[in-house]
Amino acid sequence: MKVVKFGGSSLASGEQIEKVFRIIVSDPERKVVVVSAPGKRNPDDLKVTDLLIDCADRALRLGDAGDLFHSVLDRYILIAKQLKLPEGIISRIHDDLLNVINGDKSSPDHYLDAVKASGEDNLAKLIAAYFQAQGVEAHYVNPGEAGMIVTDEPGNARILPEAYDHLFSLRSRSGILIVPGFFGYTENGKVLTFSRSGSDITGSILANGIKASLYENFTDVDAVYSVNPNVVDDPKEIKELTYREMRELSYAGFSVFHDEALIPAFKAGIPVHIKNTNNPNAPGTKVMNERKAVNGPVIGIASDQGFCSVYVSKYLMNREVGFGRTLLQILVELGLSYEHTPSGIDDISIIIRQSQINEELEQQIIDRIYEELHADEVKIERNLALVMIVGEGMRHNVGTMARASTALARAGINIEMINQGSSEVSMMFGVKEAEEARAVQALYREFFD
Ligand code: ASP
């Protein structure tokens, strides 16, 4: 039994949904189909999820969604027309959308999640109707009814462990099961979404839940590329990746697959196969426990912007018991999460996502570290990019760090920070955001050209 997930661009129009249908029926093992909301039809188009966020914002401010309501509904009307579906499905979607937009606004965050979730929910209903119209037994499955129970963290829900037991029973249902991605229900019945692009997470949870033999993730590229194709022309495709490599690359900026989506599949040992809806015969990229082909130390290079570093220096820091704990406690009390903590003998840097801190908070961090830790120096440096080279091969290859730092030096790029994860499958370089693209290109030339 396979779980198959389709992203928004694979479902953006009737024509795309016809391709999805052909893919599903060509393999009888494709049992559970997870769908996103309709995505972009062209680069200038809008995703339904973004339109829904605008609807919710407006309704929260002004009491109704105005014309935005129709901009969402029209996407479904068009798809239904292209697929020649009877009127009934559209009146069902109309009523559902109206209901959700007029819903309880007492908690804006929960309200926003309910509106966002309707994007996938209504598309799953439409797709089930289309499959049925083609004479194929298919059923819409509501995630709450299936047992997808999540934590009460709006916009960032996490699955609860007991959900997996409930989901197992989906195996015994008949027909193809069409499940909306991106959301679950809290124990007391509230709709909560995962973080953005979270349908990948739903697919992975379902693959674990039903103990699938494979989790297929259909998107709009032939494979995962070794580097962002917007930064390097015609980069190499990756045929096989380990879970760890994929997790590191997704975390550091590869947007093909959500970084939180690997763990459920990985825990159940289910391989993930990334494929292209528009070219389903291309081999795609397989993500699995171990890979055979090791082509040199580095398999991929990723990068992401929007980080800042909190640099703290104090002579004899290494001998001060509890220094790190107090420092991190300050972050806890200010409600901040951190990404990395490279450290030396007398200094430590804490890398934080910049979006979490404004100027006022920045000053509070600095003041508290001086006061509570009597630091010699505290400074916050903004606008950093993290560039990461990833590959299982690094564990067995000597000199990867030397090659990488020499390549950056040759390109005249100053390295602000270096961090090698304990897993030894990645190395990370902090550079100024303005140097990010050049850093990635220099590393690509070194390891792939
Ligand atoms: N539609 C949601 C988003 O745009 C979830 C997804 O597509 O996976 O974030």
Using brief descriptors, characterize the structure shown.
449 residues, alpha/beta, Carbamate kinase, 2 domains, 8-stranded mixed β-sheet, 14 helices, globular, binds aspartic acid
Characterise this structure.
There is one protein chain. By secondary structure, the chain is α/β, with parallel strands linked by helices. It folds into 2 domains: 2-220, Carbamate kinase (3-Layer(aba) Sandwich), CATH 3.40.1160.10; 300-447, VC0802-like (2-Layer Sandwich), CATH 3.30.2130.10. Helix content is 37%, strand content 21%. The protein contains 14 helices and 17 strands. It has helices at 14-25, 48-62, 68-82, 88-101, 108-133, 143-146, 163-168, 199-209, 243-251, 262-267, 323-333, 359-373, 400-410, 436-448; strands at 2-6, 30-35, 138-140, 176-180, 183-185, 191-193, 214-219, 224-225, 237-238, 240-242, 272-276, 285-288, 300-313, 347-353, 377-390, 417-420, 426-432. An 8-stranded mixed β-sheet has the order 3-4-2-1-7-11-12-10, with helices on both faces. A 5-stranded antiparallel β-sheet has the order 14-13-15-17-16. It has a two-stranded antiparallel sheet with strand order 5-6. Helix 2 (48-62) packs across helix 5 (108-133) and helix 13 (400-410) crosses helix 14. It is globular and about 75 Å long. The protein starts with a strand and ends with a helix. The site of aspartic acid (ASP) has 12 residues, from loops.
